């Protein structure tokens, strides 16, 4: 199967709101089909906020409102390694599979680093 290269805008179409399209999430640039888990990632599901985007940072910080971004600046090396562990989870899952990659717009190095998320359950100190 040939891998698809997505822009962020193209990936956003696969957010589970259109029942005729598969549901995709991205982890550190890799795009995975999670349609078989639509009860989790589809509209109304507990992880719907991950659908149609690369929200790698939120997997580690647990901040599901303001950290739905691929911006990893300010994370520790251990946290970045944890993101790779999540990518492995999706790569090795029995019913999710990789469909391609997402090309992100460059992050302006002068833009502010996402601030810490207070009260996030999964945040590491």
TrEMBL record:
GO terms for cellular component: endomembrane system; membrane. InterPro entries: Cyt_B5-like_heme/steroid-bd, Cyt_B5-like_heme/steroid_sf, MAPR/NEUFC/NENF-like. GO terms for molecular function: heme binding. Gene3D superfamilies: Cytochrome b5-like heme/steroid binding domain (3.10.120.10). It comes from the Eukaryota. Residues 6-103 form the Cytochrome b5 heme-binding domain. It holds the Pfam family Cyt-b5. Belongs to the cytochrome b5 family. MAPR subfamily. This is Cytochrome b5-like heme/steroid binding domain-containing protein.
């Amino acid at each position: 199967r040939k891998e698809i290269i997505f822009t962020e805008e193209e990936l956003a179409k696969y957010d589970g709101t259109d029942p005729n399209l598969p549901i995709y999430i991205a982890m550190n640039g890799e795009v995975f089909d999670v349609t078989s888990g639509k009860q989790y990632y589809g509209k109304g599901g507990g992880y719907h906020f991950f659908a149609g985007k690369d929200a790698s940072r939120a997997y580690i910080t647990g901040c599901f409102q303001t950290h739905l971004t691929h911006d990893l600046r300010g994370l520790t090396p251990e946290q970045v390694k944890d993101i790779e562990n999540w990518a492995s989870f999706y790569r090795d899952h029995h019913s999710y599979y990789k469909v391609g990659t997402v090309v992100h717009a460059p992050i302006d190095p002068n833009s502010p680093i996402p601030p810490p998320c207070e009260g996030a359950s999964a945040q590491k100190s």
